[in-house]
């Protein structure tokens, strides 16, 4: 794992965007798994602008969803699908045939996980995964204590995740108790992975990610196990790191 520290959120987002563009140009049929959340918002805005401005062909790119709130309709603002559709897929006019997202309303969520696992396997695996990091260190909805060898699965959400999710993403009370997510093994299997974090609020978890022993009680520490990964943070998020 490599650590890169940027002056601010703008510089971080620009650099993350450039990494995604590099992947797309290098492998025109790449399989991309992109996270939702506040951290990648500017990255995706810049990505859309650059792809449109440079007329970059993404018609053979496949997009895989990282996670979703179980029971939340896809059209609801706050759902991961709504985020990706409004910020990426619609602006870029991505074909529905290029997009594979979790159905959070599926009657059989275990079957839905198997469907996603099959898609990823048939596509030859994930080339690039972009993730954020939760306040409790989760990756996707892989909460503290989750098994390391999981692929797609359903999980009971941590109280921190539910509280932060309600406050940050939904403008009215919703019931969010479970998540459906790709697993830590999906993350470790990805050929290239980037984790991004910004702001002073992420300083404590970034310090733990870098300095605590690697363990699933802080899933983000597994970043250091990945053979080809990049942790990209701004100076505020890096402010508590040991200068050594």
Structure in words:
By secondary structure, the chain is of the alpha/beta class. It has a single domain, classed as Rossmann fold (3-Layer(aba) Sandwich), CATH 3.40.50.1360. 33% of the residues lie in helices and 17% in strands. It contains seven helices and ten strands. The strands form two sheets. It has a seven-stranded parallel beta sheet. A three-stranded antiparallel beta sheet has the order 4-8-7, covered by helices on one side. Strand 9 (192-197), helix 7 and strand 10 form a beta-alpha-beta unit. It is globular. The two termini are 16 Å apart. The model has no long low-confidence stretch (mean pLDDT 97).
Secondary structure layout:
Blueprint: E1 2-6, H1 9-26, E2 31-34, H2 41-53, E3 62-65, E4 67-69, H3 80-89, E5 99-100, H4 109-122, E6 128-131, E7 153-156, H5 159-169, E8 178-181, H6 184-189, E9 192-197, H7 203-211, E10 229-234
Parallel strand pairs: 1-10, 2-3, 2-6, 3-5, 6-9, 9-10
Antiparallel strand pairs: 4-8, 7-8
Can you describe this structure in just a few lines?
With 244 residues, the protein is of the alpha/beta class. The chain has helices spanning 9-26, 41-53, 80-89, 109-122, 159-169, 184-189, 203-211, and strands at residues 2-6, 31-34, 62-65, 67-69, 99-100, 128-131, 153-156, 178-181, 192-197, 229-234.
């Amino acid at each position: 794992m490599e650590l890169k520290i940027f002056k601010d959120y703008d510089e971080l987002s620009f650099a993350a965007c450039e990494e995604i563009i590099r992947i797309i140009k290098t492998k025109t049929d790449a399989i991309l798994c992109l996270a939702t959340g506040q951290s990648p918002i500017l990255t995706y805005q810049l990505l859309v602008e650059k792809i449109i401005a440079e007329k970059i062909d993404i018609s053979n790119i496949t997009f895989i969803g990282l996670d979703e709130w179980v029971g939340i309709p896809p059209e609801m603002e706050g759902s991961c699908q709504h985020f990706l559709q409004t910020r990426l897929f619609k602006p870029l006019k991505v074909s529905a045939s290029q997009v594979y997202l979790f159905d959070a309303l599926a009657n059989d969520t275990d079957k839905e996980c198997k469907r996603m696992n099959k898609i990823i396997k048939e596509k030859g695996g994930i080339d690039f995964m972009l993730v954020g990091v939760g306040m409790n260190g989760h990756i996707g909805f892989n909460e503290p204590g989750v098994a390391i060898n999981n692929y797609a699965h359903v999980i009971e959400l941590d109280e921190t995740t539910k509280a932060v999710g309600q406050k940050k993403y939904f403008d009215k009370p919703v019931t969010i108790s479970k998540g459906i997510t790709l697993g830590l093994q999906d993350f470790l299997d990805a050929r290239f992975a980037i984790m991004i974090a910004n702001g002073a609020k992420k300083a404590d978890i970034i310090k733990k990610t870098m300095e605590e022993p690697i363990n699933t009680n802080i899933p983000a520490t597994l970043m250091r196990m990945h053979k080809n990964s990049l942790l990209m943070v701004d100076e505020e998020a890096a402010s508590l790191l040991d200068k050594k």
